[in-house]
Structures are given as structure tokens and as C-alpha cells.
Specification:
Elements lengths: L1 H15 L11 E3 H6 L1 H4 L4 H11 L3 E3 H12 L5
Antiparallel strand pairs: 1-2
Helix pairs in contact: 4-5
Length: 79
């Protein structure tokens, strides 16, 4: 019975570990930096990236956040 208790404690300890402890945070970049690398990162022109991210209302983004904002911006219907 002592073995079962030990296994349960080990499982509980593993579940209580913070997943963020293993995953490093993404770097943040200024809109200008992201726009300068627009073709490589987003596959579009710098003007599109600048417009999309400025509309997003922030000064810094992670690459994954910026990709989401830019993709949404590019898919917007023109009125």
C-alpha cells in the first residue's frame, strides 16, 4: 500500500508543476522591427504589417501575436 501512496504523490507533484516553467517566453518586437522583416516572417509587404499592427493598438508584439493580427487584417473585406 505504501507504493500506491508514493505513486499518487508523484503524479500529483507532476500535475502541480507549472507548464510555463518548461516553456520559455516569446520575445517581443516593436512594430517597426516586425515590418522590416515582413517578407520573411509574414510573406507580405512592410506597409501591410505596419497598418495591421498599428490598427491592433499596441507598440510591441510577439511573432505569433503579430502573425494572427496580420492574417486577420489581410482577410478583412474591403468596403
Amino acid at each position: 500500500m505504501a507504493k500506491e501512496t508514493k505513486n499518487v504523490e508523484t503524479i500529483e507533484t507532476a500535475q502541480n508543476r507549472s507548464p510555463s516553467a518548461k516553456v520559455p517566453k516569446e520575445s517581443v518586437y516593436k512594430v517597426e522591427e516586425l515590418a522590416a522583416n515582413a517578407k520573411t516572417v509574414f510573406g507580405t509587404r512592410p506597409e501591410c504589417v505596419t497598418a495591421a499592427l498599428r490598427e491592433g493598438g499596441r507598440e510591441v508584439y510577439t511573432v505569433s501575436e503579430a502573425k494572427t493580427v496580420v492574417q486577420k487584417f489581410l482577410k478583412k473585406e474591403v468596403k
